Amino acid sequence: MALRTLTIDLARGHARQFLPATVERDYLGGRGAIAWLLWHHLPPATAPMAPENVLVFAAGPLAGTSAFASGGFVVGTRSPLTGAIAYSWAQGHWGAQLRRVGYDVLVIRGQAPAWVYLAIEGNQVHLHSATHLLGADTVATAAMLQTQHGDDATVLALGPAGEAEVAYASIVAEGRYPAEPAGTGVVMGSKRLKAIVVRGGPPLTAHDPQRMQAALDVIRRRVESSLFAAGLSEVGSSHLLGRAVESGALTERNGQRGHVSDHMLTIRARLTAHPRESRGCQGCPMPCYFDLFQSPEVRRPVPELECVAGFGAWCGITDVDCLTLLADRCLRLGLDPVATSAAVSFLMECQEQGLTQQKSLAWGDGEAVLSAVENLGRKHEKRDLLSLGVGEMQGVFWGSEAFAPQVKGQAMPALDVRASYLLALATATAPIGGDYRYAMAYEPFHPAPPPWIPEQSGMPHDSHGKVARLIWHERFAAVLDAAGICRRLGLLGYQVSPGELLALIAGATGVVLTGADMSRLGERILTVERLFARRYADNDGVDTLPLRWLREPLEDGPAADQLPPLASMLAAYYQRHGWSPAGDPTPERLDELGIKRPTSSA
Question: Are 112 and 135 in contact (CB under 8 A)?
């Protein structure tokens, strides 16, 4: 079946069409469809912030069905941060509604003459003025548009940071689910598109409901018997804080110190001491998003693992109330917490080292950090330095490149890669830039990784087996994103096996894939993304790490004296992928995967 596409030109109108049937056959949908579209149809000279750049939303074939945690979406574009592909992932229900209203892929191109929002309701597609929404945060925007279009409408929106063109602005779905990592929100803002409202129909009919239900029953039983899943269902990804501290992955002051404050050891317990309410996806057996009740009238999101590692460990903020307020402000303003905390901690160190006369940020000063974050939601005549992001900020401060937490222009999450060679390799090679969440390789912090991961090793500083396991994570994450099922359920919690994913795809679509087919599908998506990065990334797609994390061992803490052997791991990584020693997919590998070879006009 060909994937159903709605293309919106914000200056000209819209068109309905189908992608070639081979796209679904070779890329399935979701992230795979985005990779195919960007590689084959984005003109090579297109600048990321140009109206001609496209913003592509896609939901996989499981979205809109009865499958657990299948309501999310992927959005991709050419990244203004890296020049390569940017992807952001979000959970929730918006992607399910997009498919129920009749579309697998939504392509946005052009630039509106004034701020608008898009409404897709049944067969009706309209652009409306968004003047009354300007300045509203993501939660308020979702509420206002639901009031206008009905409680059954799902809304994704930009916050004030996207309007102010902050480089790492995020799109937020339903006022609850941030689309991360960064890179897509500022492109949506450049198009003057404030929000997209979708009102869909009933759940989609599965090809083989019994087969789907059998796989879902197995997943539910696994979740119900898993202590690890139970921990994630208490505080989300912050359940991993304890093991992250034990391994040395939490470091202080932008990665300068290996020992963390004793207060960091108690954050998980302090989070669970608050009354909480789940805001997880409907029907999911492992809810992993929560709101804390600060008071009967005030709710704030539980800060995620990377938010705590960034604002907490790197920036030195140990007050839980301040951390939850920062998580709330990032959600409402539409900011990626990883990129925001990386920019703040980097600027703190630049000030500490005397690279700037500004002294507004000090380690641990929560009030100053909150003020700086709030300032990112305001449009200034002259751009705020923090709004540039680490990749561009390092060019402002001479001599700062060694400790700027970025790869290929993309901010690094604050879990220290010197504590895990798997994270180090994932951060260096991610074609979206330095964010290991691309592959969701959280295995080092899992007490008992599942048996379907290859060549397991319990030693975080043992490079043996790390390459094979990263490639497995990359491929499985790609197929999860292409199919439309939550990567947190499938990889953060390891609650979905490859066999169960194949059964869900077959039950939903009737397409029967083997394990080899799944591996090939994931590899095809990854290879196209690699081609795009090698051709268009601002640093030519070079796989490396900043010198601090590559050449400067920590002097203390559990990960002291450890440095990732990146050169040897890269050689093995390229070889296993079938790429050249320089990291380029070979013509033979492209032919094997059925990928069109790049040309000068591709």
Answer: no
